């Protein structure tokens, strides 16, 4: 039996000291110090509190497939990583954020398990470029100045759980809200992503009263770039509601996107925007309720059994409830999203849309 890797626990200042050995009795002070010291097989446990960053947490050292590095909250304590004071979070509209400063947690490393953190007010919440073999679980990322979570570049074989088994990139149980730009952003991402049981809402609005403001405001952005990679992302049993732009958008991705049993509600733009020229998306049993427009489809898009295919007017009276409160409440003990058995469920019993 492999020996349990060493733990490096944390506490919020003044109890911590970066010259300490990083034990429970003598914890380090900053998350970055623990990250810098970490080696394959190490487990970093972060004590509860709010960690206000003046520099982003940069992860550059990789674990291994057999000995990943773990960064997690200590025994279920509430850990908030706050990027409000990061300079890149206040980049003027139209300005460029240096790549190394993009994430409150900025990762260009592989084989990490990151869990149990709430990440707020960053330029991006988590920005992961060229990452492989990582597991992200039980994360909340919201009120960030760009996207809540961005995977970019040649990343692969990452799993986002409650943010599965098998290979590829998996986002499951993610909740992404009130970010300036998009909830989930796959801009320039070149390998397929499976998104399941996830929620994106309230993205793209100027909640901070910035005098100059620009945010894309999509729930799930499934492509982008010049040119945009043609990638077959899959989204199923997920919900996008009350975003400033679209609920789900291909954003220039001509690949075989598959959207199945998803729901869009009260998005200012289009619920399902998959009309890129040459696009080959397939939409099956999806539900649009009270969006600016239900769907925008390309000439090669295959759509079957969706609410707009069934006909009629789909509004608040067409579903059991439009109250998202159950779905936005506390997570279950195992980190999964809470149950919302009536939210956006069709009154007539049609088997369309997401079920929580």
Describe this structure in words.
With 356 residues, this protein is mostly beta strands. The chain has one domain: Pectate Lyase C-like (3 Solenoid), CATH 2.160.20. 4% of the residues lie in helices and 30% in strands. The chain has three helices and 30 strands. A twelve-stranded parallel sheet has the order 1-2-5-8-11-14-15-18-21-24-27-30, with helices on one face. A nine-stranded parallel sheet has the order 3-6-9-12-16-19-22-25-28, with no helix packed on it. The chain has a nine-stranded parallel sheet with strand order 4-7-10-13-17-20-23-26-29. Helix 1 links the parallel strand 1 and strand 2. The radius of gyration is 20 Å and the shape is globular. The N terminus is likely disordered.
Quick summary:
The chain has about 350 residues and is mainly beta.
């Amino acid at each position: 039996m492999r020996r349990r890797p060493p733990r490096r626990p944390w506490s919020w200042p003044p109890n911590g000291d970066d010259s300490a050995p990083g034990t429970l009795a003598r914890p380090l002070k900053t998350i970055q110090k623990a990250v810098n010291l970490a080696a394959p097989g190490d487990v970093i446990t972060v004590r509860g509190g709010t960690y206000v960053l003046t520099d982003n947490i940069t992860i550059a050292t990789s674990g291994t497939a057999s000995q990943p590095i773990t960064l997690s909250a200590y025994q279920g304590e509430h850990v908030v990583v706050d990027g409000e004071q990061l300079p890149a979070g206040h980049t003027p509209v139209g300005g460029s954020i240096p790549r190394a400063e993009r994430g409150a947690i900025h990762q260009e490393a592989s084989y990490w398990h990151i869990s149990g953190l709430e990440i707020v007010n960053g330029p991006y919440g988590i920005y992961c470029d060229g990452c492989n073999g990582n597991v992200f679980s039980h994360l909340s990322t919201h009120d960030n100045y760009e996207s809540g979570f961005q995977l970019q570049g040649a990343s692969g074989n990452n799993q986002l759980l409650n943010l599965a088994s098998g290979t590829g990139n998996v986002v499951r149980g993610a909740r992404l809200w009130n970010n300036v730009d998009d909830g989930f952003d796959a801009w320039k991402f070149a390998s397929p992503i499976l998104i399941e049981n996830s929620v994106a809402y309230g993205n793209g609005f100027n909640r901070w009263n910035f005098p100059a403001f620009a945010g894309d405001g999509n729930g799930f952005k499934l492509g982008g770039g010049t040119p945009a990679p043609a990638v077959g992302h899959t989204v199923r049993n997920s919900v996008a509601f009350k975003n400033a732009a679209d609920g789900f958008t291909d954003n220039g991705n001509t690949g075989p996107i598959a959207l199945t049993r998803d729901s869009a509600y009260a998005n200012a733009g289009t619920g399902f925007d998959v009309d890129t020229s040459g696009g080959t998306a397939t939409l099956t049993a999806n539900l649009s309720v009270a969006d600016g427009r239900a769907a925008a489809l390309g000439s090669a898009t295959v759509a079957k059994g969706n609410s707009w295919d069934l006909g009629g007017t789909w509004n608040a009276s067409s579903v059991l409830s439009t109250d998202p409160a159950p779905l936005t409440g506390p997570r279950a003990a195992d980190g999964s999203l809470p149950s919302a058995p009536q939210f956006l469920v069709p009154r007539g019993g049609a088997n369309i849309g997401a079920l929580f």
